Amino acid sequence: MYRSVFRPGLFQGQVAVVTGGGSGIGRCTAHELASLGAAVALVGRNAEKLAAVRTEIVEAGGTAHAYVCNIRDEAAVQATVAQIYGEHGRIDALVNNAGGQFPAPLKDISAKGWEAVVQTNLTGGFLMARECLNQAMQQRGGAIVNIVADMWGGMPNMGHSGAARAGMVNLTETAAFEWAQYGVRVNAVAPGYVASSGMDAYPPWMAETIRSMPSTVPLGRFAAEAEVSSAIVYLLSEAAAFITGTTLRVDGGRPNVRPGSPMPAPRHGAAPFNGFHLAVTPKVLQGEEDRHAGA
Ligand code: ADE
């Protein structure tokens, strides 16, 4: 079973939509929410991955359903949210987690590549949030968490993603203001380097860069997926009832590194919290146990 730090039954009777629920942080968060009683609607493009996560959750005693949807497609988002609302009768939580990018310096990014990344990481999240608000949350409130990234100060070789995710932070702030009147809270979580399946999506030439990431983080390691999930779950929970419009960094202090201040090696490290019983070590980090969060 998932070892959540949160109270059993915290989300009992609630419906949570998790985009990008077929892998990585989305899969982990879906498991944690289901373990706390939520019925989870897994949204993503890949039917097989969604079905596999649904099976995992059901085998763990939870409730989950899969909805294949390309979040870049406005009509598909409208229809998917209508289907989820129709089948469940409510939507209490949205985790806008689906995302993705490809590494490239700005000078080599075509308009098509730029648009694709912005649509996935900004427009798609906006559409999901707008539809959950208009179709469901306007009536009885809710909570939205947008997953962004550690793009503070720029995101070299991922400029399209950094721009989109910075846009998402600002969207979070506007939506927090506009939707507070409906009892809808809107926050964001900005993960740093997470030991997650997403790392295996990058080309082989990035492997050494990926493996050296912990040396650039004051806490000296990768995050476990469960450390991001617990931040998301906190912001969705009643414990965060007065928090809206904020972005919670989960990055081991990486943006606080300053050129000219040598990084002290962590003496004890910071022990990872890994509550996810089905966490898998990304292939690129296998054999690196002492340098990552220890899936
Ligand atoms: N995950 C990554 N990109 C996605 C998209 N366009 N739609 C749904 N899930 C996604």
TrEMBL record:
Annotated GO MF terms: trans-2-enoyl-CoA reductase (NADPH) activity
Keyword terms of this UniProt record: Fatty acid biosynthesis, Fatty acid metabolism, Lipid biosynthesis, Lipid metabolism, NADP, Oxidoreductase, Peroxisome, Phosphoprotein
SUPFAM superfamilies (UniProt xref): NAD(P)-binding Rossmann-fold domains
Gene Ontology BP terms: fatty acid biosynthetic process
Pathway, per record: Lipid metabolism
Keyword Calcium in annotation: no
Location of this chain's protein in the cell: Peroxisome
All copies of domain Ketoreductase, residue ranges: 14-155
Catalysis performed (reactions): (2E)-dodecenoyl-CoA + NADPH + H(+) = dodecanoyl-CoA + NADP(+); (2E)-hexenoyl-CoA + NADPH + H(+) = hexanoyl-CoA + NADP(+); a (2E)-enoyl-CoA + NADPH + H(+) = a 2,3-saturated acyl-CoA + NADP(+); (2E)-octenoyl-CoA + NADPH + H(+) = octanoyl-CoA + NADP(+)
Annotated signal peptide: none
EC number: 1.3.1.38
Subunit record text: Interacts with PEX5, probably required to target it into peroxisomes.
Function: Participates in chain elongation of fatty acids. Catalyzes the reduction of trans-2-enoyl-CoAs of varying chain lengths from 6:1 to 16:1, having maximum activity with 10:1 CoA. Has no 2,4-dienoyl-CoA reductase activity.
Similarity section: Belongs to the short-chain dehydrogenases/reductases (SDR) family.
Protein name stated in the entry: Peroxisomal trans-2-enoyl-CoA reductase
Species the sequence originates in: Ralstonia wenshanensis
UniProt lineage: Bacteria, Pseudomonadati, Pseudomonadota, Betaproteobacteria, Burkholderiales
